[in-house]
Structure formats: C-alpha cells, structure tokens
Amino acid sequence: MAQFLDVRPHQLGMQPTTINFTSPESTTHDILTLVALITIGVTLLVHLIVATAVINDSVVIQRRDGRLMFFGPLTWGFLGLMTGLLGLLAYWLMHHSSFRVSPSSTDAAKADKDYEKPVA
C-alpha cells in the first residue's frame, strides 16, 4: 500500500511563495480586475434578461399571429443571448417597429378597423 508523501517546499530546497495583495504595485491591477469582473457580470446579466424577454415576447407573437420572422422563439432567444442588445434591436425592428411586415393585409385592415372603434 502506497503511503502519502508529505514533502514541504523547503525540504526540496525551494523558497516558499507568498503573494502580497496589499502592496502599492498591485492596487491598479486589482482595481482593473474588479472592474473587468463587474463588467462581465453585468454583461451576462443583460444578455440573460434580453434572451428571456425575447423568448417570452416571441412566444406571445407566435401564438397571436401564428408565425415569426425568419426563426422560432428559441432561435430568437439564442440570438438575444449571444448578441445582447444588438439581437434585441434586430428582434424589435422585425416584430414591433413600423418596418414590420404584417402577417396579411386583412389582419392589418382588421387591426385598423378595431383601432378606430369608439370605446363604449
């Protein structure tokens, strides 16, 4: 049965390694690392929120209109996850802006007629 070898660095002639996080030389590096980590965290959070919102909205549009432009809800959500706000902009332009192509002209005419009805 093999025994565990307990070998310390000084037994091998090596000097122990210490890391000093409080030295003035590392302050700038530590701050930049913290800023980078916070930026990465915020970016991930924004991308997750965008993906969730795009998936939820695309499911609603697909149920209402029966189709989406180019892709299904999961693909649009994946694009939102990968591209963030740029993907959200593309999704919005295709599904919510005035550039949007309506499913059919009869649906657009019906929507205009319903819009003009007075509220009782």
Poorly predicted parts = none
Query: What value does the average pLDDT take?
Result: 79
Order of helices and strands: HHHH
What best-fitting shape do the alpha-carbon axes yield?
Answer: elongated
Largest sheet: none
Structural class category = mainly alpha
Helix content: 55-70%
Total of helices? 4
Strand content: under 5%
Mind telling me the C-alpha Rg?
A: 28 Å
Number of strands: 0
Which features would summarize this protein structure in a list?
120 residues; mainly alpha; 0% strand
Q: What would your notes on this structure say?
A:
By secondary structure, the chain is mostly helical. α1 runs parallel beside α3 and α2 packs antiparallel against α3. It is built from 4 helices and no strands. The model has no long low-confidence stretch (mean pLDDT 79). The protein has a domain of 67 residues.
In short:
The chain is mainly α and 120 residues long. The chain has a domain at 35-101.
Helix/strand layout:
Blueprint: H1 27-65, H2 73-83, H3 85-95, H4 105-116
